[in-house]
Amino acid sequence: NPDVAWTIPISLGDSHHGYRVMGTSSDYFHYFRYGQKKPLVFSDGEAFAGVFDVVLGSEVARSLGYHLGDKLVLAHGLGRTSFSQHDDKPFMVTGILKPTGTPVDQTLHVSLEGITAIHVDWQNGVKMPGRSQTLEQVAQLDLTPDSITAFMVGLKSKMATFRLQRQINNYRGEPLLAILPGVTLTQLWQMMLVMENTLRLISA
Questions:
Q1: How many domains does the chain have?
Q2: Is 69 left (phi over 0), alpha (psi -120 to 50) or beta?
Q3: If I label 21, which of 36, 54, 80, 190 is the partner at 20 to 30 A Cα–Cα?
Q4: CA of 14: how far to CAs of 20, 57, 75, 159, 167, in Å?
Q5: What is the DSSP letter of 167?
Q6: Does the residue 145 lie in any domain?
Q7: What's the pLDDT band for 89 if we cut at 50, 70, 90?
């Protein structure tokens, strides 16, 4: 679309000790702005480069005592306590962001390929016994995600906002909803948590 300057993909659904995990691309660190158009800045390290690299928000690093080079395990789902751990595919901390006063501080950032990688042994939200693959085997796979939760769109001109919103909302290829920046990542996570709790009630 000629109106689009950049896009940032977002994939949600996993957590770590109650903190949300967000799968995204390196464009997130380049284009994302908060407050008065402030960019994200690293207090230590750098953006993820490998499949199993993770960048921590400032609060995550501070409260859990993580430093560069530390390894951590992500959990399936958004609950504070999870018994479904991706413990066979740990991530290494490669970067820590400076405080922003936004939900970014409470987020673990990994690549979209990382999100795909930790779920290659899973089906319908359940880890399949006997299908575990090593990190080396996973690295050889095509880890391009089949779907994402949402994406941010930056436009070349604000005048194109409502035109593009209408185009997305009327897209017939799949159900999509374009929302304006007033809806934050926090609200997206709340929506995901409601969906997860609903599924738990249905399966109970």
A1: 1
A2: left
A3: 36
A4: 6, 15, 6, 36, 30
A5: H
A6: yes
A7: confident
Terminal alpha carbon distance of the chain: 44
The residue-averaged pLDDT of 118-143 equals 70
DSSP 8-class letter at 182: T
Distances 168 to 29, 129, 164, 180 between C-alpha atoms, Å: 25, 40, 6, 12
pLDDT at 204 over 60: no
Q: Is 98 contained in some domain?
A: yes
Q: What is the pTM of this model?
A: 0.81
Phi, psi for 111 (deg, rounded to 5): -75, 160
Cα–Cα distance measured from residue 99 to residue 101, given in angstroms and rounded to the nearest whole number:
6
Per the structure, the complete domain to which residue 150 belongs is given by 4-157
Which is nearest to 150 in space by CA: 47, 48, 24?
24
Q: In one letter, which amino acid is 85?
A: Q
CA dihedral 126, 110, 57, 100 (to 10 degrees): -120
Q: Report the distance separating Cα 186 and Cα 167, nearest Å.
A: 25
